[in-house]
Amino acid sequence: MTLLLSTAHNLYWLGRYMRRAQELPNLVLKHRSPGQMKLLGWPVDDENEAQVREYLYEQVLPELFNRINDNVQAVRAVVDGDASELFNQARRLQQAGSARAAGFQLWACSSVMMEQSLLVTQFWQLGDYVEMLDQRIRMETAESRHYRYLAQVVTNLPDGTAWDKIKQQIQALVFTTNGSQFYLWRDRLDQMFEDGV
Fold first, then answer.
1. How far lies 78's CA from each of 11, 82, 119, in Å?
2. Under a CB-based contact definition with an 8 Å cutoff, are residues 188 and 163 in contact?
């Protein structure tokens, strides 16, 4: 199977948005820390549980689900019918006002994305692991293993292509675990998607 770069880019963002939607409720409702809302760029008070919950469920998650749906529509031709159905169920739950249930449904969507063709899964995982590491760096909980997970996904991207440029760089990050270097690497990755590989 060959993927268009635009499809790979949509799979990447699908992985990122899914990870964000899956982890944000737990992060902001159960493990909230002082200054976290400011770090996330949210215009709410860390101490006001009701305000945080309302902003999460009324603003943030609906926007993430819209982005997820846009990306699902863009990759519909490369995912199987089971994936399409699971994503449709998540969208219906969210539209019915059941954002929490829709979030649980995303875990099923993640499972089915692991069962897609190799390239589809690789580019979806790339986004998933970039988002995972990004969140952990921001929350100052990143460990070497998180860099290693991302490096493994990047190393499995097709050989003999422009993706080779980013493989060595991410391997070095496994040893340095330097957050600012990760953001430079991520910016290069984003530029590759924009410029074309």
1. 10, 12, 10
2. no
